[in-house]
Batch of 2 targets.
Target 1
Amino acid sequence: MSTPEAPHMQAGCLGGIFKTRFRRSSNLKGHNTPLVTSDNPAPSALRRDELAHRSSASPGPSGVSGEHKPNIYYGTCCDFSGKDYTTNWPIWEDPPPYSNTGSSGIFRAEVMRTIEYVLDQLDPTLRKLSLQIHDNPEIMFQEKFAHDTLSQFMESHGFSVTRHYLGMDTAWRAEFAHGKGGRVLGVNSEMDALPMIGHACGHNLIAISGVGVAIAVKAALETHNVPGKVVLLGTPAEEGGGGKVILLERGGYTDMDVCVMCHPAPGIAHSAGISTSLAMQAMEVEFFGQSAHAAAAPWEGTNALDAAFLAYSSIAVLRQQIKPDHRVHGVIKGHNGAANVIPDYAKMRWYVRAPTREQLFSLRDRVQACFKAAAMATSCRANIEFGLPYLELRQNSVLGAEFIRTANNHCGIVSEVWEFASAASTDFGNVTYELPSIHPIFAIPTQPHGGNHSPAFAESARSTEAHKACMAISKGLALTGFRVINDDDFFRKVRDAFELSKTDKTH
Ligand SMILES: [Zn+2]
Ligand SMILES: [Zn+2]
């Protein structure tokens, strides 16, 4: 097993996206994006700062020294405290019939019929899979049941499966190719749960969505004789450890032309959305001093707690000079001491967030300067560690528009592209830097104060309504993915949008 050094902090997901103010984006003009209006407002227009994430109380990395040395650990990214969305979840209505494709239509309605048929046939089986995974929650890098169950399932559906993919015990890859050549659609299935509260982020739904999309696209390739390949990755440790970052670094996404996945969250009934997220990096600093009798010989001591105090104060001052959409938050750890002993050790954990990678690194450097200054002022030694950053989501605008058009016209989903950034973060953000990708959020019914990362959300993630929402969005993702394989002109536009996004520093 070459599982990376165990991460100890929870990272996050995109669930908080639905708690943010809904705003219509101008990025996709001309596409059908009806949803929230003054007549049909979002349940509440919450402030971005209400999305500030909770800090994890779990321990940080160990055994790594040296400034800027990459280490694998991540900060908590989500505040999923939940709001009042349950009041706006009506009884599920059937999606519109196939013939009702709206004025804008969809790509190849006959392919959509294939996708619909396959996923409807699979529905009870996927429901069972979802509940099995939900009933066997496994935290980061321990998704053995999910790994074995899902890889076996994909094998039984005609996929070529690689277990323990790229040296990760619980990663897996399932692929199917039809004909010769053609493009490659990538899909992701997350599997991990949260400590103590199980599948409180709904990754059981993400798992079966990936499975469903891959099998539906396989059927579409075969039925309509389109050459191409679909690759489904079982991606461990989204909540802590950045499984996708590791897979990315080891070449797990190299042969994909695009990659798609989805994530559940509270929100307006039968809705989905696409937006970016905050880039995030965890930092940890240890201050080493010298103990001494605090009264008899304080001059013989070097006070590590003073260093932490100065670092905290410096960052508190810094925070007033950063932009409103940047975040720095942290805690002092250390060990229990006596008031009459000069503390020789203190440990701090910080999370730095910003809308873009560049802004993140800039802010990170300013925070690091506070650590160094504190060490210098107190004559302590500082050891600073950096986690691998979660980059912000760079949702592909062409894929996003296609998904929205498909979902709105055919999947019983109303969708929007949002121009704001969710305060959450995800390891899929790093994937979106490397290849065209989309990561829609879809709404499931939740209880008040029962958003992602709450025990109530775990219950929501196993509800019948959540399953139906998952299946609906999977149909939209499958057809969007199929079009990438089947439509040269569409794929060219996807690539063009991807190349253009690299120059967009505001993204
Ligand atoms: Zn999640
Ligand atoms: Zn989560």
Target 2
Amino acid sequence: MRSAPLLLALALALLAVAGPSPAMARRHKGEEEKACDKGWEGGGECSGSRFCCNDTITDYFKVYQFEDLFAKRNDPTAHAAGFWDYKAFITAAALFEPRGFGTTGGKEVGMREVAAFLGHVGAKTSCGYGVATGGPLAWGLCYNHEMSPSQSYCDNSNELYPCVEGVEYYGRGALPVYWNYNYGIIGEGIKQDLLNHPELLEQNATLAFEAAIWRWMTPMKRRQPSAHDVFVGNWKPTKNDTLSKRYPGFGATMNILYGDLSCGQGSIDSMNVIVSHYRHYLDLMGVGSENAGDNLDCADQLPFNPSSKSLDS
Ligand SMILES: *[C@@H]1O[C@H](CO)[C@@H](O)[C@H](O)[C@H]1NC(C)=O
Ligand SMILES: *[C@@H]1O[C@H](CO)[C@@H](O)[C@H](O)[C@H]1NC(C)=O
Ligand SMILES: *[C@@H]1O[C@H](CO)[C@@H](O)[C@H](O)[C@H]1NC(C)=O
């Protein structure tokens, strides 16, 4: 058993030399499975992942679709024109595909997950308003940082991730990150020193997407699910969840990421705008907003994490 990883590495090395072949490689659990010989991004990244041979995001989400979703992001009036692109998203996403991001449950679930994740991103980075050309939903990825921070977002009571002098922790990135402690946690997650260098999230679009996908994939508290888990069906609600009206679906992703800032308050704008982006992206991707899934909103859900310290400001 101890030599299994070595054998696998050897098999992959041989594949790389010999090119695609129907070679069999022995996997961890001992079952025979076809070695993945399709163009999984990052090549060896996929070895040992149970998502290995499934469709990757580039199989079903192409550059023209990214351009459709974020049609106005390079408009001269957009605030981050020239910053965001497809390649940055795909490069970041490839790091999480072996863990199931966009690769769980087949192509349709994958497309829905990409629409859901990007729906959050679009809503949180939009500068669209009622009369904007192209409609309010065409302006996702308009920003890469908060324009006029209303406060310093430094919590000096946090000993684990103390504020660094002269560094500011206003909102930055694809799912904007606020506060020293959030930069600290997320920086550890993506192995970047964001506590000292939060500006990386407004200087490097790949890192901005990486931070956002890390948040999507990672439970914020022990014994809680991630947004990914509640969306793709990995999560089974407990009795307490059911009593709190938390069910699997898009609604619960908002609950995890924003808690009572968006959820449990009826049909409020800060919730509806995220749902609208998700549904719009499903339509643009050809999945159709009628396939948005059950439990689309969180109007009646009690928050997983009652506020003030939720990741959004
Ligand atoms: C891979 O995709 C198939 C359908 O294409 C799906 O049934 C299966 O659950 C997927 N595997 C994983 C690990 O999600
Ligand atoms: C962005 O960060 C990634 C990951 O550290 C790095 O590989 C890439 O070169 C950076 N891009 C730019 C434009 O600095
Ligand atoms: C059940 O949910 C309520 C409200 O969300 C929460 O205050 C309580 O701690 C939860 N109980 C358990 C055992 O998780």
